[in-house]
Amino acid sequence: MELIFEISKAGRRGYSLPRCDVPETELSEIYRRKASAILPEVSEPQIIRHYINLSVLNHHVDKNFYPLGSCTMKYNPKINEETSRLVGFAHIHPLQPENTVQGALKLMYELGEYLKSIVNLDAITLQPAAGAQGEFTAISMFRAYFNKKRESRTYILVPDSAHGTNPASVNFSGFKSITLPSNGEGLVDVEKLNKLMTSDVAGLMLTNPNTLGLFEKNIITITDIVHQRGGLVYLDGANLNALLGITRPGDMGFDAIHFNLHKTFSTPHGGGGPGSGPVAVKKLLEPFLPVPIISKSNDTFYFNDDISDSIGKVQTFYGNFLVMVRAYTFLRMIGDEGLSEISKSAILNANYIIQSLKDDYYLPYPGFCMHEGVLSGKHLKDLGLRTLDVAKRLLDFGLHAPTVYFPLVVSEALMIEPTDSESKETLDAFIETMKRIRREAEENPDLLKSAPHSTPVRRLDEVKAIKELKVRCKT
Description:
The chain has 475 residues and is of the alpha/beta class. The chain folds into two domains: 87-333, Type I PLP-dependent aspartate aminotransferase-like (Major domain) (Aspartate Aminotransferase, domain 2, 3-Layer(aba) Sandwich), CATH 3.40.640; 343-465, Aspartate Aminotransferase, domain 1, CATH 3.90.1150.10. It contains 16 helices and twelve strands. It has helices spanning 2-12, 44-57, 78-84, 87-90, 102-119, 131-148, 165-172, 190-196, 219-228, 249-252, 261-264, 321-357, 387-395, 424-443, 445-449, 462-467, and strands at residues 123-125, 155-159, 176-180, 201-207, 232-236, 256-258, 279-281, 293-297, 300-304, 373-376, 403-404, 413-416. The strands form three sheets. A seven-stranded mixed beta sheet has the order 1-7-6-5-4-2-3, with helices on both faces. A three-stranded antiparallel beta sheet has the order 10-12-11, covered by helices on one side. It is globular, with a radius of gyration of 25 Å.
């Protein structure tokens, strides 16, 4: 970790924090207080207890298991927070001269090199601040690529099991999406791909392993078909947690991929942020990268705007830097061997859960999954119950619910992703709880229908919420 502290010091040189003092005489009269503020007299223990009590009302990774499917809610090592709070990282400003932020630029450059190596691609941008923005960036580069070639291609193929952001990113990028059906095994229907991949199609957006947790065993055939018709192939990197150190997207024929640094490399993103979605590409797409990229000349790092056909800037300044610091810290700690251990553990944990529960909940696609698996609660309908009832009942046991009703190709879906960081004891406790809920469904279904019973907020009236939607607060 010595390198990280040296980098932080480098970013600190020649910079002092701005003062926020404003002389009282400079304040307009209307803003000046006429009387002393009435503030409560509160002791330190009272303050601490207040915020601790607030924290336990919510669910978070440090509190208990978070098996939210397709979101890789990996734990957040506290050293990540320590490094992201170093003055040379936390207190720099994006408009500082480059020579005063060499440490930060070095970290960003090295992070980019690590990420390119992990996926075996040639160039990278760190700008996108989320996975969906990474998708938009990559598909916008696809569009620029075909415009440069003077090819008028209109469509992008998107599998029916894809994340919902995929077709949205396609449309925002100026293309139209065409749904690519799955076959009976839950994988891409290669015959349909052959028919749909015409000269009007710019390429394919693919998640691999897909959102059913299944690896596309025909991936080389799939990417070959797209390339033979002049198209490009994009990998949604949301499920990269299953591939690290085992196989590389570049070897499978992908032309671009976005990373979810906040998922795969340990910055839990509950509550809507923070995020970071760098995009790595093959050489043919490098001229279209957003500007600036981080480049190196001798031992000096700099912002490089010399990108011939850049799609322009996609994010304010240079991306979500402190998430990059956390990801860099994590990668430096685990090393190359740690990468493969992440994926192996994630795959083992997911299969342990799915195989343990397949007799209690329906398994639509038998066999082994990758880092996540999808069960179904469709048989609960015979008992007057839904998957949602299982999810709500889980909250009574202090466990976060898995993703429900996604992917859409599975009726009453229960999508479970344990990640690599959970122990067998935690998995056993979750499995036993799920089995108990299944027994309760048979013996006392009303217990599930009225759950949760122990949370600060009880179950909402969904029908009332839809009929009487309130989109603004009272003033």
